[in-house]
Amino acid sequence: GWAIGSFWGAGPSGAAIAFATGLLTTCFYEFCHCIQHLAYKPKSKWLAEMKKRHMAHHFHDESGNFGITTFFWDKLFGTHYDRPERPKKSPTVFNLGYTPEVAERWPHVAKLSGGVQTAHPRKRGEG
């Protein structure tokens, strides 16, 4: 709270610094998140490890490894994991929670999204 208060107390220049800091932080976060979802192999060991953990979140068990730029919050809240610790894949991992039960509850979402996909993502386009 004191940092925000000191920015606002500094007048327009403090507000501009606060805005620029927020903008740069958001750009950095979005850059990190983007490269985690693209076919890009980071040269940085830190970014490569973040990508590995976040991809486990999307393709192994979406109930953990939420971090994009740090593991701090996952470790603090107990959601950080290594893949061997959770050998069983989540049943909703490929649709990120959109199950037939969810589709039944919100049918308009099923209609707009093309329905519930149960096949492996690489097999969906096949006959």
From TrEMBL:
Domain Fatty acid hydroxylase positions: 13-79
Alphabetized InterPro entries for the sequence: Fatty_acid_hydroxylase
Any one Gene Ontology BP term: lipid biosynthetic process
One Pfam family from the record: FA_hydroxylase
UniProt GO MF annotations: iron ion binding; oxidoreductase activity
Descriptive protein name: Sphingolipid (S)-alpha-hydroxylase (No EC)
UniProt lineage: Bacteria, Pseudomonadati, Pseudomonadota, Alphaproteobacteria, Sphingomonadales
